[in-house]
Amino acid sequence: MSNKKEETSIAKYKLTAALAVLLLVLSGVSLFVGVIDLDLHSLFGGDAEQMKVFLVSRLPRLLAILCTGVGMSVAGLIMQQLCMNKFVSPTTGATISSAQFGILLALLFMPQSTLWSRAVFAFATAVLGTWVFVWFIQRIQFKDAVMVPLVGIMFGNVIGGVTNYLAYKYEMTQALSSWLVGHFSVVLAGNYELVWLALPLVALAFVFANHFNIVGMGKDFSQNLGVPYQLVLFMGLSIAAMITASVVVVVGSISYIGLIVPNIIAMFKGDKIRGTLVDTALFGALFVLVCDMLARVVIAPYELPIELIVGIIGSVLFIGLLLYRLKHGRKAVRLGAAHSGGCAGVVSAQERGAAG
Predict the structure, then answer these.
(1) For residue 79, is it left (φ>0), alpha (ψ between -120 and 50) or beta?
(2) Angle at which helices 198-207 and 59-83 pack, to 10 degrees?
(3) What phi-psi label fits residue 275: left (phi over 0), alpha (psi between -120 and 50 degrees) or beta?
(4) pLDDT tens sequence across 92-143
(5) How far apart are CA 210 and CA 341, in angstroms?
(6) In CATH, what number is assigned to the domain containing residue 175?
(7) 199-232: burial string, b at 16+ Cβ within 10 Å, e else
(8) pTM, whole model, 2 decimals?
(9) Residue 170, CB-side half-sphere exposure with 13 Å CA sphere
């Protein structure tokens, strides 16, 4: 019995270690991918021009990529757990659309606003939009796995329509376009540090991971264990919304990360947040990093928006995940000793009961 537990523990950490090593290697490689060639000899030799490119552009870009991948994937994981639906994410939960609406309001009412003041508007509207979405789906009596994200997409399109209308009316379309498509080409030292806010928020999510698991099992279950359902729900949604807003303000809109990454990790490691959060964060950073490197080399020396690369890959993966989830629900893929988390069986039982 003890040998099986040891094998299970080793299998769990193998994936984490592999993701960490691969992320470290590709992070080093990404620092030397770009229009301007960098080499270690010149950097260590004190070449001022090369050092300037490294410190002002390449290193900030890498840090922004890692924060974006970690933040957006964890935000999606939180929303999926709290909403008890694997198709909910900042994209399908109207969070990104709400953040873009906040940025437009900042541009309209505070034309000379700084990055941080725009972030305040984005935080407020992202949190409010996410709360409204969850409030709305809680009042839909009959819903299945696909209906909830469809409602979120429709709600997000309504917010996006209002945003575009105001942008056209007040001739702010060009100013808003920077936040409609995600890209890292404008990330430089001094104008990206806001995205670091994702890291302490992710750490906070890890602290309350067990509470999110309990709330994800339903209101009655949470109350029986003495967990304040509404408080934890709103706190978790606020964390996810603030992470998303901090990324959108700096990088722009990047879809699918919060939807695809948590689902792929859950397929192999189950649904328990504390057991999957680290792997989700690592794989999210790795996914965004690979997509960004592809965006830089596909039509070099020009660069594609990362939203385009993520959209193409994410669409294919989303279709595959959709077919898998509709067929297998939240059942995890068994690879050796890997297995579903403890709450996966409980949630699956709840889903079967709800379906019945």
Answers:
(1) alpha
(2) 30
(3) alpha
(4) 888 999 999 999 999 898 888 788 888 999 999 999 999 999 888 888 766 6
(5) 12
(6) 1.10.3470.10
(7) bebbeebeebbebbbbbbbbeeebeeeebebeeb
(8) 0.85
(9) 15
Within 8 A by CB and 6+ apart from 291, the residues are 306, 309, 310, 313
What span, in angstroms and rounded, lies between the C-alpha atoms of 234 and 285?
26
Count structural domains, the chain.
1
Cα–Cα distance for residue pair 97/218, rounded to 1 Å:
27
- DSSP H or E run through 120: helix 115-138
- The per-residue pLDDT for range 273-291, each reduced to its tens digit, is 877 889 999 999 999 999 9
Q: Which run of H or of E encompasses 308?
A: helix 306-328
Q: Is 33 exposed, middle or buried (0-12, 13-18, 19+ CB in 10 A)?
A: middle
Could you list the residue range(s) of the whole structural domain that residue 64 is in? 2-355
